[in-house]
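STRUCTURE:
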């Protein structure tokens, strides 16, 4: 039986790539333990997805994490490794790709970073987001992980001396010289053409985002009975931990459509002691009542427009940007758990990998089962908490049209009517 290890650097990336295999019926499991023992993976598991949580690590630490995972997985009998990268090229790209090569003892590996269906393409070695070079896009302004270069070769070279070989669209796949083989791609057809050509050389190692993962799933013929979409609770709770302008626009559109929208105060999103206060009990009870009544609700960690309360709070307490990233996501996860403990019955929508990971840690869940795509970058997943199965939609901060939240809420309320999104 074919066994594939897929390594992602954040949680939403793990899910939106793992679902490419799960949707074809391959037995797919997503784990969040970076010390996971691959020899313990069930024999029935065909695709094991590891959320290595390496995006925010130093390049050296990210290299060690990925190197260990690849080395141990190959020793445990996994025949294929796919290193999932962010489709906006954030994170430790160079360090992690070189770690895969080194751990496998290989001298070349293809890297296809494009995600054409989200208008993220690679042309002449430059990566574009909606027609804009990535370093000039919103991802170049990211407060936590800005992309500094648009040329893929420069992004890789910033962290490794491993050679980079560029392959333009014109002509065949080209000569496979030692190093990381970077392929231009602008369409889904490009991805499949590259994949089928590379398959003749062997694809034991490959890397890219969810786009090429879908091609790999076909090439490896990882098939089975497609999962059935479960009945979804017709209420939507959005837990927004993303600061990406794409998500901010989605919340604006949702609020215009009548979504109750709560901006957490600095104390509510950064002070764990607040969770034990009478004020918290009263506030969360009010949130629960609103969520039950309106059947849609947004908890948002972003300050309202033209408000700097969080910046002031952080400065007064000497909190760093990293303190804010970690602290806010952890608190948001605990708040959602409190709502679940209070009887919240809703489909959950988490924006941002940090948010989703914080929630799973808050409820003590280490494994999730991806089900299907609901939209580009919006993946339906299941987890069990206190004996109850919850449906959760994960969404990377930079994905989706402005009306995404509105359409998802409409879908949940549409039952099995024709307007609902299909899996």
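SEQUENCE:
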């Amino acid at each position: 039986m074919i066994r594939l290890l897929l390594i992602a650097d954040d949680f939403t990336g793990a899910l939106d790539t793992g679902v490419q295999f799960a949707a074809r019926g391959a037995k797919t499991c997503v784990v969040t333990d970076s010390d996971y023992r691959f020899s313990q993976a069930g024999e029935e598991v065909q695709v094991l997805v590891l959320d290595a949580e390496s995006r925010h690590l130093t390049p050296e630490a990210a290299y060690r994490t990925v190197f260990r995972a690849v080395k141990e997985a190959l020793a445990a009998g996994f025949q294929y490794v796919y290193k999932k990268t962010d489709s906006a090229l954030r994170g430790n790209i160079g360090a992690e790709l070189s770690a895969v090569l080194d751990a496998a003892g290989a001298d070349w590996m293809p890297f296809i970073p494009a995600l054409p269906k989200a208008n993220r393409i690679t042309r002449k070695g430059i990566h574009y987001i909606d027609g804009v070079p990535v370093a000039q896009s919103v991802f170049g302004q990211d407060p936590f992980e800005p992309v500094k270069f648009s040329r893929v070769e420069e992004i890789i070279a910033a962290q490794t001396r491993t050679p980079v070989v560029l392959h333009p669209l014109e002509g065949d796949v080209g000569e496979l010289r030692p190093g990381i083989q970077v392929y231009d791609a602008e369409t889904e057809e490009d991805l499949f053409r590259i994949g089928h050509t590379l398959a003749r050389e062997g694809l034991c190692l490959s890397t890219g985002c969810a786009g090429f993962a879908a091609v790999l799933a076909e090439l490896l013929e990882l098939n089975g009975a497609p999962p059935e979409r479960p009945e979804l609770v017709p209420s939507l709770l959005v837990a927004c931990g993303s600061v990406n302008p794409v998500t901010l626009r989605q919340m604006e559109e949702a609020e215009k459509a009548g979504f109750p929208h709560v901006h957490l105060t600095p104390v509510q999103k950064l002070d764990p002691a607040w969770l034990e206060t009478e004020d918290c009990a009263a506030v969360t009870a009010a949130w629960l009542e609103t969520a039950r009544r309106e059947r849609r609700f947004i908890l948002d960690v972003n300050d309202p427009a033209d408000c700097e309360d969080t910046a002031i709070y952080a400065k007064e307490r000497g909190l760093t940007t990293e303190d804010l990233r970690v602290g806010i996501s952890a608190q948001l996860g605990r708040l959602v758990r409190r709502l679940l403990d209070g009887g919240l019955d809703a489909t959950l929508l988490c924006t941002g990998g940090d948010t989703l990971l914080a929630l799973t840690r808050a409820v003590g869940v280490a494994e999730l089962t991806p089900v299907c795509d609901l939209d580009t970058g919006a993946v339906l997943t299941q987890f069990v908490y206190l004996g109850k199965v919850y449906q959760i939609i994960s969404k990377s901060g930079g994905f989706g049209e402005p009306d995404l939240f509105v359409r998802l809420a409409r879908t949940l309320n549409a039952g099995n009517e024709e307007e609902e999104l299909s899996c």
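REMARK: Residues 416-422 have pLDDT under 50 and may be disordered.
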